[in-house]
Amino acid sequence: MNANSRKTLPVLILSILYYAVGSSFSNRQRTYASLGLLAGAIGDYMITRPSDGLFFGAACFSVGHIFYLFTFTHRIGDLCLPLLFIVILISLVIFYAILALLLIVHPIASAIMITYSFLLSTCVVFSGSLYIHGGPYDRPRQFNNLLRFLGFLLFYLSDSALIIHHVGIAVPVAEKLILSTYFIAQYLILCGSSLSLSSSSSSLSSSSSSCCYCSYQVQQKSRK
């Protein structure tokens, strides 16, 4: 199995399996999560290609993160401002240290990377805010939201290491670090999304049952 297959097949298979067996989840949410994984698989393939593969891969990952955002942004309450400031600070450091140099030589490719970095940072801030503060449908510090938050943090770490390594700055055990954090990140994001959808379905079923029971009680009292 070549390098392209090692990176692409696991996420591609996971996207197909998740869409096929996740019948208990919302069709729309399941589709968004599956498309996010599929875009990641395509990005995995593109990023291993020579020349501008990194930038085409970043474009695919950007699409994937947009789909991921669709799965949970409606659940967010308040933003966690300290987390927002930390992510902005780290992103600015990476931008000035690395992307600013690429912006002069490859403006279009750098614009793609900046857009992708913005989307990934948004995912980190939004998922972290949902975990810390909760939202209309979630209590603060729920386990499913922790998994999603950790997934995006690892995604951020993986891609930061990838960009740093790509511009020629030595990263210890770069390939193992990038691949391991990336695959774990995808798995954690998927687990967090699955648990969120399951809990939402359970809550909805419980609410429906309660409403039906209350209606039944009202009808019984009216007959008496």
From TrEMBL:
Domain of life of the native organism: Eukaryota
Transmembrane regions listed in the UniProt entry: 53-71, 83-105, 111-134, 146-171, 177-197
Catalytic activity: a 1-O-(1Z-alkenyl)-sn-glycero-3-phosphoethanolamine + H2O = a 2,3-saturated aldehyde + sn-glycero-3-phosphoethanolamine; a 1-O-(1Z-alkenyl)-sn-glycero-3-phosphocholine + H2O = a 2,3-saturated aldehyde + sn-glycerol 3-phosphocholine
UniProt keywords, alphabetically: Membrane, Transmembrane, Transmembrane helix
EC number: 3.3.2.2
Top-tier EC class: hydrolase
A Pfam family that the UniProt record links to this protein: YhhN
Protein name per UniProt: lysoplasmalogenase
Organism: Elaeophora elaphi
